[in-house]
């Protein structure tokens, strides 16, 4: 309850920030996209990560207001970057029938091009209520926004599941990337996941790449994009602009 009240106050007093982690092309290593990652700077300095406070906000329903705030902030920041923007969406947001309309409104208000926006969802978002989720995703796609399956390799996502939801993109979870670099049978599984994604016309991002060895491995495995500390950690909006200017 206490944390939930703190979150309400945080929204009101603008204690949230959005940081951005660039994704690079696996071959050219140029920045092709950013993932928006929510940060909370509490006045007492005791910062909490989204892995701690997002579940609390989901429980109370406050995630709808926080999620809308993140989308509006991120679309405003990324408007002039000319690259794709990826935003994480919670199960509770996807279940909210207002969500697709809210999203359309934010795109209109900010002028952000829908074809440059991607929503990252996890499979738990979809298994809880697949019919509602599918309808929401259809509406989202109708706006021209892509849908990305996040954290792939940590759950139970099956071929049937991938066929049903036809994601535009798959993000291989960090644990799969890290373990594949040292375990041959896991590497074989990762390779077959990538060929399956290819067969379904999905692009693939490898997450959590921290070493050159991992980067070489996921690149030769056929990943299109790489995200991880080897290239960039999450950073404030101003720094993204600097990196983009430095690249051209
Ligand atoms: O950035 P970090 O590693 O601390 O993120 C931890 C978790 O919080 C990740 O699973 C990430 O997807 C999630 N997360 C970060 N920002 C957001 C957000 O704006 N909305 C939602 N729903 N999840 C987020
Ligand atoms: O669940 P999701 O994939 O949205 O979470 C992304 C999280 O992974 C963010 O909290 C981000 O800070 C973290 N992250 C990004 N790159 C790396 C990395 O190279 N190593 C580790 N350990 N974490 C990373
Ligand atoms: Mn994500
Ligand atoms: Na992940």
Automatic annotation (TrEMBL):
<feature type="domain" description="EAL">
    <location>
        <begin position="1"/>
        <end position="248"/>
    </location>
</feature>
<protein>
    <submittedName>
        <fullName>Bifunctional diguanylate cyclase/phosphodiesterase</fullName>
    </submittedName>
</protein>
